[in-house]
Amino acid sequence: MKKCERWLLGSLFVATLVIGVPPAYGSTAGALDKTFGNGGIALTTLSNIGASVVLFPSNGDIVTVGGNANATPQGTAAIAVVRFLPNGALDTSFGTQGVTNIGFADNPRDSTGAVSGALQGDGKIVVLGLWQHEVQFSYVDVIGIARLNANGTLDNTFGQGGKVTLNPPADFVNGTTTPTALLVQSDGKILVAASVIGCAIGCPALTEFVRFNPNGTLDSIFGQDGTEVISVYGGSPDILVELTTSDLLTYSRNVIAQYSPSGALRPNVTGGARLTTSTKIRTGDLIQPDGKVLTSATVSGRTFHDFMYQLTRFLPTSGVDWAFQNPPFASFVDDTVEPDDGKIVAVAQVPQAFTEMNVLRFNPDGSVDTSFGNGGSVLTAIPGGAANPGLVTIQPDGKILVIGGFQPSGSQASVMVLARYMHMAH
User: Fold this and answer.
1) Helices then strands (H, E): number in the chain?
2) Looking at the DSSP assignment, which residues form a beta bridge with residue 228?
3) In the predicted structure, residue 363 carries a pLDDT above the cut 90
4) Closest to 366 (Cα-Cα) out of 389, 346, 391
5) Nearest Cα to 163, choosing from 116, 216, 201?
6) CA-CA distance, 327 to 104, in Å (whole number)?
7) Which residues contact 401 (CB under 8 A, 6 or more apart)?
8) How far apart are CA 14 and CA 374, in angstroms?
9) Is 88 exposed, middle or buried (0-12, 13-18, 19+ CB in 10 A)?
10) Cα-flanking dihedrals φ and ψ of residue 114, to 5°?
11) Pair 29, 424: CB distance under 8 Å
């Protein structure tokens, strides 16, 4: 089998913003940004392309890294890197009309899934994926990394033709490998984290770290010839941090671990000042700057259409943070992000409809931020189909960017849609 990819918010009301109906722009927090796309929404023609991470080059462009379910005429899945101009239009000078597809497959039954991406200081784009390679009617999981030039072409100074692949360790060939995080360190070296399992049933999940030199070769001073496999309770990390001491911190939900620069597990977590951090991956959970973990969960309801959801915060070292009080709400959280002011922005689906993108904002203590939108929430619909969110991030200028999918009525395929909102009143 392939693996590709307590109450309603008190006085929380939602404002429906629909293309063609003039909304309020720019005057309040939560208003659509009229300088972006068509009235704040950029509806693309990119079919079956998603976004796992968003990167922001220094020129104000927007780069997404995600999966492309139909990258070839045979329907082979690949990684899609898409570049948009600051106004939401595709940057047609990038790749092929704004898109570069990256695959590692050597037969039509192989597939490549996107995991993460990162920007180097020189503007090059590093992409992490999982290549599922068919070998004698079964699949071997292979870590794949590619590097693109700023114009979307493969960087021939990296690996072989811009790509590097790494087979699983010998003990894990018959199991599974799932890459989870990517970090470009301050010295240009590339660190990858993955979960590895040695068999189909009953084997524990271990954490694998692999570090590459800037040219794509394995870093021989890290672990054993570039690879380190460690048993760490809590699963593989989805956030990697390089400290100013050159130590590495990893976060996996409410588990924090610290490693030496060469990949050895430290006996204690001492932390320290951060130097570089891996790119935020689309997830319903959020690691806050102070190390606290924010997660969402179902708290009531008997069917999916009447579930209530709630954000909960865990302390870095001990259980629930009871000072964080978030009232339940009727929206399924897809992703969360924390702007510089400490507030929490969540993007969610409304179970009763599944046709609109719901953006909510909470204060640092979990209470509803009633200064955002209409009582704390903004509901965005697009006529002619169903719009569902997937990822939320904060641009360098503080604006809120939501990326999701739009499925026209009667169509089996969805296209990528972007919406941009004001975070602060202007």
Assistant:
1) 0, 28
2) 209
3) yes
4) 346
5) 216
6) 45
7) 54, 62, 392, 393, 394, 395, 418, 419, 420
8) 6
9) buried
10) -85, 140
11) yes
In the sheet with 415-421, reading across from the earlier edge strand, the strands are: 41-47, 415-421, 400-408, 385-394
- Over residues 21-46, the pLDDT tens digits come to 334 445 689 999 999 999 999 999 99
Cα separations in angstroms, 186 against 119, 286, 289, 358: 12, 23, 19, 37
Q: What is the pLDDT of residues 364-397, one digit of tens each?
A: 999 999 999 989 999 988 888 888 888 999 999 9
Question: How long is the chain?
Answer: 426
Strand spans (E) along 213-290: 227-230, 239-243, 248-252, 255-259, 274-277, 286-287
> What is the phi/psi pair of residue 363, to 5°?
-75, 165
What is the average per-residue pLDDT within 236-260? 85
Cα 169 from chain centroid? 26
Distance CA 42, CA 19 (A): 11
Residue 144 has which token pair?
């794949």
What is the structure's pLDDT at 290? Answer: 79
What is the DSSP secondary-structure string of 93-137?
Answer: TTTBTTEEEE---SSTT-EEEEEEEEE-TTS-EEEEEEEEEEETT
Supply the pLDDT for residue 366: 94
Is residue 311 exposed (0-12), middle (13-18) or buried (19+ Cβ within 10 Å)? buried
- CA-based angle 329:55:313, to the nearest 5? 30
Structure tokens at 209: 């770290």
Q: Which pLDDT does position 253 carry in this prediction?
A: 62
Q: What whole-number distance in Å separates Cα of residue 176 and Cα of residue 184?
A: 24
> Closest Cα partner for 393 from 64, 36, 42, 39?
64
pLDDT score of 309: 83
Question: Both tokens of residue 188?
Answer: 């240009």
